[in-house]
Design goal:
The complex is a heterodimer. Chain A is mainly α. In chain A, 62% of the residues lie in helices and 0% in strands. In chain B, the strands form 3 sheets. In chain B, strands 1, 2, 5, 6, 7, 9, 10, 11, 12, 14, 16 and 17 form a 12-stranded mixed sheet that branches. In chain B, strands 3-4-8 form a 3-stranded mixed sheet, with no helix packed on it. A two-stranded antiparallel sheet of chain B has the order 13-15. The chains are: A mainly alpha, B alpha/beta.
Chain lengths: 80, 409
C-alpha cells in the first residue's frame, strides 16, 4: 500500500486529524499532533511498517511527507 | 493565636462511588446509600466501590489520550472545585501564586498494569508510559488544565497521601508561599493486580453475595475487612485575605493539621500515634477537645484498625461530658486509599456547613465501646468544629481540623 495513504489513514482514524488538512506540506503540528502525539504516531508507524526509527530521525520530521520519505528510506534499507 | 493568615476553603469537588459531585458524595453519605458492588461485575469475586456508570473521564474535553484513570478522576474533581470557587478562569496575574498539592498512594495503577501486561506478552512499552505513570501525573495535569504556575507538591504516603498534601498546603499558605493552593487526592486501584495484592494481605472484606452493598461494616461485629474504592476529591484553599479580597464564598476554615508517625509496625495501627495526630491538630488549630462536634473516622472495617482508632479517640476525648459524634463513611464510598483523606474532608466540611453528620451505614451490632457512634440516620445539630482522621500503612497518622467560618471566637 502507498506509504502516504497509510500515514493519512492513521492520522485520520487513530489521531482524529481533520482530513481537509492532510496535504503534502502540512506540518504535523497543524494536524493537531503535538510533540507527545508525535511519539505515539511514530510508535504506531514503527509497528505498521515493521521499521525502527532512530531518535535522531524522529526529532527531524516536520511534515507527513517527511515521515513518508523516512518510512520509504527505512523500508528500502530493510529490503536491501 | 499567631499572626499568620487563616486558611479557608472556597471550593469543593468530588467524584466517587456515590456519583459525580461533592453533593452526590455528601447526600449518599447522609442517606447511608452504598456505592459498593461486586467486582469485577462479570465475575463478582470481590466487593469494591467503583465510580458508577459512565461518569469516568473517558472522552473528556482537553484531556490527553491514554491518561491514567486516577488523573482523569482528579481532573473531574478539580474542575468542579474550581467552578464552585468561581475560578473557572484563574486571572493571569494570580497564576504564579496558585499552586497544586496532590496525593495519591497507588498512582497510575491501570497504566502500570497495562505496561506489565505488554512486557510479559512480548509487546513494546507505550511511548508515554513514563509520563502517564509518574507519581505526579495528576499534579501536572491539574496545573496544565487550569494554568496554575505556583508551587507543586505530590505526596505519596499510602492512605494518608491526600490528607498530608492538604495539611502541607495549609502550612505553605500560612507561610505565604502561595495565595491559593488546589489540593486533594485521587486513586483508581480497581485493577486485578491491585485487588489480588490487597487480597493476599488478608485485609479485604469478604464480599456479601446477598447484599454486596453492605460488604463494608466499620465498627460492626460482623465486619470482615476493607472495601477498595476509587475516586477523587478536590478543595480550593486560600489565604483568608485573598478569599475575602475577591469576595469568595467560604465553606469553612481549615484550621488544624497533625502528622504523627508510629515507628512500630508496617501495618498494625498504633493508638498512641493516632492520639498524637489528633492532639497536634487541636493544638495547631487552637481548639479545645470539647470544641470538636464530629469526627469522620478513618475506620476501614478491619478488625484491628477500628478498635485501635476507637481507643485513640477515647484517649483523646474520653473524659469529656460531651464527646464528639463519630462515623465512618467508608461503609458507602469504600476505601479510596490515597484519596480517602480528601473525600472524607469534603464530607466533613459539608457536615459542618449543613449541621448534619452522616451515620456509619449498616452499623447494627457495635463492638467498640466508649465513643459516640452515629448509626442509622444522620444526626442533625450545629457543629462548631470537626476532625477528619486518616491513617496509613507505614505507621503514618494525619488528622485535619475544620471549623465554622466566620469563627464564633
Amino acid at each position: 500500500m502507498d506509504t502516504r495513504q497509510t500515514l493519512a489513514d492513521i492520522a485520520i482514524k487513530e489521531f482524529q486529524c481533520d482530513p481537509e488538512k492532510i496535504k503534502e506540506d502540512a506540518s504535523i503540528k497543524d494536524l493537531g499532533i503535538d510533540s507527545l502525539g508525535l511519539l505515539e504516531f511514530i510508535f504506531r508507524i514503527e509497528e505498521v511498517f515493521a521499521i525502527r526509527v532512530d531518535n535522531e530521525d524522529a526529532e527531524k520530521v516536520q511534515t507527513l511527507t517527511d515521515i513518508a520519505n523516512l518510512v520509504d528510506r527505512l523500508r528500502t534499507m530493510a529490503a536491501a | 493565636m499567631s499572626l499568620h493568615d487563616r486558611v479557608v476553603i472556597t471550593g469543593l469537588g468530588a467524584v466517587s462511588a456515590l456519583g459525580l459531585g461533592a453533593k452526590a458524595l455528601f447526600a449518599g453519605s447522609l442517606a447511608g446509600r452504598s456505592g459498593i458492588r461486586l467486582w469485577p461485575p462479570e465475575a463478582g469475586i470481590w466487593a469494591a466501590a467503583p465510580v458508577p456508570g459512565n461518569l469516568g473521564p473517558v472522552g473528556m474535553h482537553q484531556l490527553p489520550a491514554h491518561v491514567d484513570r486516577h488523573v482523569g478522576l482528579a481532573t473531574l474533581a478539580v474542575r468542579e472545585a474550581m467552578a464552585d470557587a468561581g475560578l473557572e478562569n484563574v486571572p493571569a496575574a494570580e497564576s504564579a501564586s496558585t499552586g497544586v498539592y496532590w496525593g495519591t498512594g497507588v498512582g497510575s495503577a491501570a497504566t502500570v498494569e497495562d505496561s506489565y501486561g505488554r512486557l510479559h506478552s512480548g509487546q513494546r512499552a507505550r511511548p508515554l508510559t513514563i509520563l502517564l505513570a509518574m507519581q505526579n501525573a495528576a499534579v501536572a495535569q491539574i496545573a496544565l488544565d487550569h494554568g496554575l504556575r505556583g508551587p507543586q507538591l505530590s505526596v505519596s504516603q499510602a492512605c494518608a497521601s491526600a490528607a498530608a498534601a492538604i495539611g502541607e498546603a495549609m502550612l505553605a499558605l500560612r507561610w505565604g508561599r502561595a495565595e491559593r493552593i488546589v489540593v486533594g487526592g485521587s486513586e483508581a486501584p480497581l485493577v486485578a493486580g491491585q485487588l489480588q495484592a490487597w487480597d493476599a494481605l488478608r485485609v479485604l472484606a469478604k464480599a456479601d453475595k446477598l447484599s454486596p452493598e453492605q460488604s463494608c461494616r466499620p465498627f460492626d461485629r460482623r465486619r470482615s475487612g476493607l472495601v477498595l474504592g476509587e475516586g477523587a476529591a478536590a478543595l480550593v484553599l486560600e489565604r483568608e485575605s485573598t478569599a475575602r479580597r475577591r469576595g469568595a464564598r467560604i465553606h469553612a476554615e481549615l484550621c488544624g493539621y497533625g502528622n504523627a508517625g508510629d515507628a512500630s509496625h508496617y501495618a498494625r495501627p498504633d493508638p498512641a500515634g493516632q492520639q498524637r495526630a489528633m492532639e497536634l491538630t487541636l493544638q495547631d488549630a487552637g481548639l479545645m477537645a470539647g470544641d470538636i462536634g464530629y469526627i469522620n473516622a478513618h475506620a476501614t472495617a478491619t478488625s484491628v484498625g477500628d478498635a485501635m482508632e476507637a481507643a485513640a479517640i477515647r484517649n483523646t476525648f474520653g473524659d469529656l461530658q460531651k464527646a464528639p459524634a463519630v462515623s465512618s463513611t467508608k461503609a458507602v464510598h469504600g476505601h479510596a486509599l490515597g484519596a480517602a483523606g480528601a473525600l472524607e474532608l469534603v464530607i466533613t466540611v459539608l457536615a459542618l456547613a449543613h449541621g448534619e453528620c452522616p451515620p456509619t451505614a449498616h452499623l447494627e451490632e457495635t463492638d467498640v465501646e466508649g465513643i459516640d457512634l452515629i448509626s442509622g440516620t444522620a444526626r442533625r445539630g450545629p457543629v462548631l468544629a470537626a476532625l477528619s482522621n486518616t491513617f496509613a500503612f507505614g505507621g503514618s497518622n494525619v488528622s485535619l481540623a475544620v471549623r465554622q467560618y466566620p469563627a464564633n471566637d
